[in-house]
Amino acid sequence: MQTPSVERYESGDRRTGPPEASRGPESSPETSDPDYRALLELERNKLPEANIVAIAACIFGLAGMLCLGAITGVPAIVLGIVGLARARNLRGSGRRLSIVGIVAGVIGTVWSVIWYVVSVAGS
Prior knowledge:
- The chain contains 6 helices and no strands.
- By secondary structure, it is mainly α.
- The protein has 2 domains: 18-47, no CATH class; 52-122, no CATH class.
- α4 packs antiparallel against α5 (70-89).
- The longest helix has 28 residues, at 95-122.
- The chain starts with 5 loop residues before the first helix and ends with a helix.
C-alpha cells in the first residue's frame, strides 16, 4: 500500500487524512504506545506529595496539648518548623498542619510547665 503524498492531501482528497508531520501529538509514535499513554495518565492524575513531617507535628502537638505536655510538645514545635520549611518545597502542602503542630506544641508545653510549677509550689 502506498503512503499518501502531501500533494494528494492538499489537492482535496480527505480520505487519507493529513500527512504525518501535520498530525497532532495524540498520533505521535510515543502516544500510540498504550504503555506510554497509561504512564501519561498516571502522571496527570498523580496526587500531591504528602508532608509527613507536618502530619507528625500535628499529631505530636495535639497529643502534647491533650495529655502528654512537654514530652510531645517540644518535638511538635521542632517538627512543625521543619514541616514549614518542607512545605515551601512542596508548594504549600502541609503548611497548615505544621502551624497547628507548632501552636498545639507551644500550648501543651506551656500548660505542662504551668502545671508543674503550680504542683511544686503547692507542695
